[in-house]
Amino acid sequence: MPEIKLGVVESRFAEIIWKSEPISSGELVKLCAQELSWKKSTVYTVLRKLCERGLFQNQNGMVTSSLSKQEFYAIQGEEIVKDGFQGSLPAFIAAFTKRKTLTAKETAEIRRLIDSAGKE
What we know:
This protein is mostly helical. It folds into two domains: 8-69, Orthogonal Bundle (Arc Repressor Mutant, subunit A), CATH 1.10.10; 88-120, no CATH class. The protein is built from six helices and three strands; from the N terminus they run H-E-H-H-E-E-H-H-H. The chain has helices spanning 8-20, 25-36, 40-52, 69-84, 89-99, 104-117; strands at 23-24, 56-59, 62-65. It has a three-stranded antiparallel β-sheet with strand order 1-3-2. Strand 2 (56-59) and strand 3 form a beta hairpin. The longest helix has 16 residues, at 69-84. It is elongated and about 45 Å long. The two termini are 24 Å apart.
C-alpha cells in the first residue's frame, strides 16, 4: 500500500467518515457542508482522491473505510518510528517518555502490550 499522508482538512474529512460509516455519499455531502462548509464537488473530489489512495471506498453511493482509523494511525506511527528513529521502537519510547511522564496505569498497559506481543 502506498504511503498515505493526510493534511489537516483531509484528516477532518476522514474523521467524519470514520465516525459516520457506513454513510451514503449524499449524507456525507450534507455533513461536510455543515462541518467543513464544503460544496458537493469538493466532497466528491477529496473522496475520490482518498479512495484512489486506498483509505476509503465508495461503492454504489455508500462510503466505507478500507482502513479503520486505528489501522491508519498504526501505519502512521510505524512511519514515524521508521523515519524518525531508524526503525527503533525502544528509541521512540525513550524519546517519548523523556517529554511525557507516564502514569502507573499507562506503564502497566504498555507492559501488558509488550508481554502479549512477545507471545505471538
